């Protein structure tokens, strides 16, 4: 039997994001909150064999050659604002 949950003192930023997400998915806020909780608390179960098969598929789809760490870092930072790149670098080194 479904239970009822009442939430109080939701931070404004969380409430606003939930409202926008609900509107984007054409759900009520209650339905959107349930979906968000399910995604976090009930993640899809995948067997190690399935995970390994998916990793192999992804690796096979990569172009031939080697990937240097600096190239990977540059690609991860591509399109990010400089402030995000600087804060990421600072937190990684600290």
What does this structure look like?
- The protein contains 5 helices and no strands.
- With 94 residues, the chain is mainly α.
- The mean pLDDT is 85.
What is this structure, in a nutshell?
With 94 residues, the protein is mostly helical. The protein has five helices and no strands.
Topology:
Layout: H1 12-24, H2 29-41, H3 48-61, H4 69-77, H5 82-93
Say what oligomer this is: single chain
Number of helices, counting only DSSP H or I runs of 4 residues or more = 5
Order of helices and strands: HHHHH
**Overall 3D shape:** flat
Radius of gyration, taken over Cα atoms and rounded to an integer in Å: 20 Å
The computed structural class is mainly alpha
Largest sheet: none
Distance between the termini: 49 Å
Low-pLDDT residue intervals, each spanning 5 or more residues? none
* Average pLDDT for all residues: 85
Number of strands: 0
Report helical residue fraction. Answer: 55-70%
Q: In what range is the share of β-strand residues?
A: under 5%
Q: What attributes characterize this protein structure?
A:
94 residues, mainly alpha, flat, 0% strand
């Amino acid at each position: 039997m479904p239970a009822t949950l009442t939430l109080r003192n939701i931070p404004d930023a969380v409430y606003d994001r939930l409202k926008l997400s609900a509107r984007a998915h054409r759900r009520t806020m209650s339905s959107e909150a349930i979906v968000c909780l399910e995604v976090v608390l009930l993640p899809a179960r995948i067997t190690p064999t399935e995970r390994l098969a998916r990793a192999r598929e992804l690796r096979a789809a990569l172009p031939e050659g080697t990937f240097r760490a600096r190239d990977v870092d540059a690609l991860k930072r591509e399109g990010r604002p400089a402030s995000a790149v600087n804060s990421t670098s600072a937190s990684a080194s600290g």
